[in-house]
Amino acid sequence: MILYSFVNFCLIVYIIEQQLITLRGKKTMEPKKKGGFTSQIGFVLTAAGSAVGVGNIWRFPYLAARDGGGLFLLVYFILVLTFGFTLLTTDIAIGRRTGKHAWEAFGSINKKWGFLGKLTFLVPVIIMTYYSVIGGWILKYMVAYISGQHKLAAQDGYFTSFITSKASPIVFMFIFLAITAFIVFTGVEKGIEKFSKYVMPGLFIMIIGIAIYSLTLSHTDAAGVTRTGLDGLKVYLIPNFEGLTFSKFLGILLDAMSQLFFSLSVSMGIMITYGSYVKKDVNLNKSIAQVEFFDTGVALLAGMMIIPAIYVFMGTDGMASGPSLMFVSLPKVFESMGAAGVVVGIIFFVMILFAALTSCISIMETLVGTAMNIFKTSRKKTSSVIAIISLVAAVVICLGYNVFYFELKLPNGSTGQLLDIMDYVSNSFLMPLISFLTAIFVGWVIKPKWIQEEMEVGAKKFNRAKLYSFMIKFVVPVIMAVLFFQSTGIFSKLPF
Ligand code: PHE
User: Fold this and answer.
1) How many whole angstroms separate alpha carbon 447 and alpha carbon 149?
2) For 176, which of 135, 161, 219, 240 could close a Cys bridge (C-beta 3.0–4.6 Å)?
3) Whose CA is nearest to atom 9 of ligand 1?
4) Using CA atoms, how far apart are residues 292 and 192, in angstroms rounded to an integer?
5) How far apart are CA 272 and CA 102, in angstroms?
6) Which residue is closest in CA terms to ligand 1's atom 11?
7) Shortest CA distance to 193 belongs to which of 47, 378, 91, 387?
8) How far apart are CA 494 and CA 246, in angstroms?
9) ∠ CA 118-120-121 to the nearest 5 degrees?
10) Which residues have C-beta atoms less than 6 Å from ligand 1?
11) Where are the alpha helices (DSSP H) in 337-417?
């Protein structure tokens, strides 16, 4: 089966390559000039496409549900406007000013810090191994809903039996990866930007539609209790301070912080890559504010669409379901909605599939763009090779649920198998470490002025310059160090 998928994949890539070559009537094997975004809106929507992904639609709502609703939202918004803004600005400005991918960007500013570029590059390498696996799961659910298997999907054990089966997860991952690879293969302007420009506004409209629908729901359970969508909205928005202790608050803060990294795709070189494709006349201040707004807006709306629905049909118990929320609890909610649930289910999984695709594209583009620069190879050749390597890695991750199954206790206290380990290494271990080092580098070695100059190119005003400077020098390094020690479990080993 694996061999079959692999051969198929190579074949498809090869055929596409040949077609494109014939279409253009020439062999473009020599490295071409790097592509770039054609417009500011194209850049904003593509960057937002990377930022908006499963993090917003699945991870954010379940964290908000678990961490006291409104309280989590409040903490998260403050973090977006301070940390999120600082890290996003840093990445995009470094990318545009150097015109390079993370791999070379840091070293080109200061030779001694070249290692940070390599370290940053590791994150998309790791995420690439498992993101397409999750993309495959989403595709599987979308197909299940479209083909009328929604009843099955809502049954206990459906998800587990799917991910532990040998062939199916690989097949769906393969299709998801092939679509991603094809778009990256066609290039930044013709593929990535164009795709995001259509898909992102569509996603926004769908999410608003389902969020409004969610609020109109009402259900009376077996015990005769009626719950409405608006009650659910209150649970989501109003802060719950009940039983709040300092350590619980610290937990919420850390959850919100790691969510922020993942959600904005910062500190992993991706935004540096996209920044390097931006023209000098684009207003970075505005673009960054728009990306923050888009990403947070989608997360907020996703919560508004999921939490009231879960609350109406499952009460507060359903809200504590954690990571399984999207694949286990939601299908049950769609099932309780009756006929409408099938339509809502289809729209939901189509939407999240788009979101996951644009994110996976940004990860693969970072790998491809970097490799093209290092090896001076053409886009087509490089993306074909990277796609094949990614496929092999993703197959291994899929098999982590059966052939290679094992459980490992992670330093942060949770247990995981292959996919969780990859996620832990990239999100909980590397990202805080990279943000810490980047903050030291920008704040104390090259100084915030270096970033400010880039933000002010073309007489643009860098409105939040003072905030930026303060954050990058003092706040980010301290908090990142805390986050790093927390997630590596070093804190819990201390005697106090
Ligand atoms: N930001 C994406 C999300 O919210 C996830 C992502 C992670 C995208 C890493 C690219 C790289 O789901």
Assistant:
1) 57
2) 135
3) 265
4) 20
5) 6
6) 265
7) 47
8) 18
9) 65
10) 50-51, 53-56, 127, 262-263, 265, 268, 270, 359, 362-363
11) 339-375, 379-399
Predicted local confidence at residue 26, as pLDDT? 41
Q: Which atom belonging to ligand 1 lies closest to the Cα atom of 54?
A: 12
CB 305 within 8 A of CB 62: no
> Which among 196, 354, 359 is the best mutation to test ligand 1's pocket, defined by most ligand atoms within 8 Å of the CB?
359
Return the biggest CA–CA distance within the chain.
Answer: 71
Token pair listed for 157: 């054990």
CA distance 141 to 203: 18
Q: Nearest to residue 89, comparing CAs of 283, 253, 220? A: 283
Pairing mode of beta strands 408-409, 415-416: antiparallel
Which of 80, 122, 263 best tests ligand 1's pocket when mutated (most atoms within 8 Å of CB)?
Answer: 263
Q: What is the pTM of this model?
A: 0.86
For residue 362, how far is its CA from the centre of ligand 1 (angstroms)?
Answer: 8
Distance 475 CA to ligand 1 centre (A): 24
* Token pair 């769908």 in the structure block, residue: 206
Measured from the Cβ of residue 386, the count of other Cβ atoms closer than 10 Å reads 22
> Position of tokens 């931006």?
278
Helices (H), 424-475: 431-440, 448-455, 465-470
212: Cα separation from own chain's centroid: 24
Mutation test residue for ligand 1: of 50, 133, 434, the one with most atoms within 8 Å of CB: 50
* CB-count burial class (<10 Å; 0-12, 13-18, 19+) for 108: middle
Mean pLDDT, the chain, whole residue set: 87
The count of C-alpha atoms lying within 13 angstroms of the C-alpha of 101, restricted to the half-sphere facing its C-beta, is 23
- Token pair, residue 354, equals 């788009």
pLDDT at 301 over 70: yes
Counting beta carbons within 10 angstroms of the beta carbon of residue 400, is it exposed (0 to 12), middle (13 to 18) or buried (19 or more)?
buried
- Asked if 56 and 298 touch (Cβ cutoff 8 Å), the reply is yes
CA distances in angstroms from 227 to 67, 68, 158, 185, listed in the order given: 21, 19, 27, 49
Instruction: Please state the atom number of ligand 1 nearest to the C-alpha of residue 359.
Output: 8
pLDDT digits (tens, 9 = 90+) for 398-419: 998 888 888 888 776 677 778 8
* Torsions phi, psi for 134 (to 5 deg): -65, -40
- Atom index in ligand 1 nearest the CA of residue 56 equals 4
Question: What is d(CA 275, CA 91) in angstroms, rounded to the nearest whole number?
Answer: 7
pLDDT tens track for 29-84: 333 445 689 889 999 999 999 999 989 988 898 888 888 788 999 999 999 999 99
Instruction: Give 262 Cα–ligand 1 centroid separation in angstroms.
Output: 5
Nearest to 285 by CA among 461, 438, 141: 461
The ligand 1 atom nearest the CA atom of 356:
12
Distance 141 CA to ligand 1 centre (A): 20
